[in-house]
Write a structure and sequence with these properties.
This protein has 318 residues and is an all-alpha fold. Helices cover 75% and strands 0% of the residues. It has 14 helices and no strands. Helix 1 packs across helix 13, helix 4 packs antiparallel against helix 5 and helix 6 crosses helix 7. About 5% of the residues have low confidence.
């Protein structure tokens, strides 16, 4: 009997190791299906900026409800810190989402996601300039690999790909840059506030800014139709709020470097979606360029050597 209990505890301990991995895998997979919502909302007449507005507004409402029920103590901030959330909300999330959604509608989904994953290269450069972080040889290799990967994707001929454009490439890289800015602004915000607080006010500031700018109410005749409401709420819920909560929960039990590697499931899911749902092509040169970018992401997140230090967990979301 005692042996049986010990065996059961051993099995349970092994399963617990996979629990955070499962959570992060699910969250990354949810990010990988963002294009389903973006392309559907685009097809019924919403622009990229209007789709961003729908996403951040629904997310802000859902996070506000969650905060009121479960995280009331984390919803208090100092007025002087609004500037931090203007950085994360407007200069990062709005820019990143607009560029990414535009890219998704301009080129193959798989390429749009891969270009988004140039963000670690931007983070490395921006951190060196603004946060005075060291530029190691490993980071240098990663940045070089990312740039070479982008050159291969951008230089591929029209015969090798179903859909590629200059606007798609520029906005794809813009998405990576906007996503990277979150790491810079978010680093300062997380020194004072919890991840939930930062995320809630990031989406809230973005929503407050975009609603009057986009005049979304002018499209109320289609905004409040059953299908659009279904996709709009689903967009704010599944690849945004739920993905964030699962990712954060996983980060409580796993190193951020490992989480970043697991999160590369996102481009894999997006590529499968691109191939099987949208029947989009994926050429050899594109595959090589994409492989270089993904390899660079993994390399820069791998702790190398016996003196490698564990990295502090941080939040990340698409």
């Amino acid at each position: 009997m005692k042996t049986k209990i010990i065996l059961q505890e051993g099995v349970w301990s092994k399963l617990k190791r996979f629990y955070p991995i499962l959570l992060i895998t699910i969250s990354a997979s949810l990010w990988g299906v963002i294009a389903i919502f973006v392309r559907k909302l685009s097809s019924v007449g919403f622009s990229s900026m209007e789709i961003v507005t729908i996403r951040v507004t629904v997310a802000a409402i859902l996070l506000g409800i969650l905060g009121a029920v479960k995280y009331r103590s984390q919803m208090k901030i100092q007025l002087m810190d609004i500037k931090l959330f203007i950085g994360t909300g407007i200069f990062s999330i709005v820019l990143f989402n607009w560029c990414y959604f535009t890219s998704v509608n301009q080129m193959n989904l798989s390429l749009a996601v891969i270009l988004l994953y140039t963000s670690p290269a931007f983070v490395t450069i921006l951190s060196f300039v603004f946060l005075k972080e060291k530029m190691s040889w490993l980071k240098g290799i990663s940045v070089t690999g990312t740039i070479l990967g982008c050159i291969l994707i951008a230089g591929v001929s029209q015969t090798d790909t179903a859909s590629i454009s200059a606007i798609g490439i520029i906005t794809g890289l813009g998405a990576g840059f906007g996503y990277a800015l979150y790491s810079i602004f978010g680093k300062f915000a997380l020194e004072k506030y919890q991840p939930f607080t930062v995320t809630f006010y990031t989406f809230l500031i973005a929503a407050i800014t975009l609603i009057p700018l986009t005049h979304l109410w002018d499209k109320g005749n289609i905004l409040f139709t059953g299908e659009v409401l279904l996709y709009g709420v689903g967009f704010g819920l599944f690849p945004t709020v739920i993905a964030f909560l699962l990712y954060t929960k996983g980060l409580e039990q796993i190193e951020s470097s490992k989480a970043a590697i697991i999160a590369t499931v996102e481009p894999v899911v997006a590529t499968l979606l691109s191939l099987f749902l949208y029947k989009e092509g994926f050429g050899v040169i594109q595959a090589i360029g994409s492989g270089l970018i993904l390899a660079s992401v993994i390399i820069v997140n791998l702790p190398i050597g016996p003196f490698a230090k564990k990295q502090k967990a941080s939040i990340s979301y698409d």
